[in-house]
Amino acid sequence: MAMKIRLARGGSKKRPFYSIVAADSRMPRDGRFIEKLGTYNPLLPKDSADRVKMDLDRVKHWLSLGAQPSDRIARMLEAAGVREKKVRSNPKKGTPGKAAQERAAARAAKAAAAAESASE
Fold it and tell me: Which of 8, 34, 99, 109 has its Cβ near the most Cβ atoms within 10 Å?
């Protein structure tokens, strides 16, 4: 059985509240789970102690049994010091899109032309 540690959404419309659960990967997101490991409330400030609550002993137990954390849970575990930080690099994320690059090139060409005409 492929185990996952992931978020199960609760809360009402536009008021998300998540449970951190150990579940079979074939089950639906909000469906059947094996054990509730904690909670996550994204509406609280990032520095709040109540934003993420986890039973770290149980999380370590499930990780030792081979459960794979989701991306968001992996980040929470890195912040808690349970897992070592993974190096993430997405060099293309910060680059502007094609249209913005074209506008920047046009702006640079216009500025260069203005500088040449001013120097003559």
Answer: 8
Note the pTM of the prediction, 2 decimals. 0.72
C-beta separation of 55 from 72 below 8 A? no
Residue 43 located in a structural domain: yes
Model confidence at 8, pLDDT cuts 50, 70, 90, reads: very high
Distance of alpha carbon 101 from the chain centroid: 27
Model pLDDT, residue 16: 95
Q: Is residue 94 part of a domain?
A: no
The total domain count for the chain is 1
Of residues 29 and 16, more confidence is placed in 16
Strands (E), the chain: 3-12, 15-24, 35-40, 52-54, 68-69
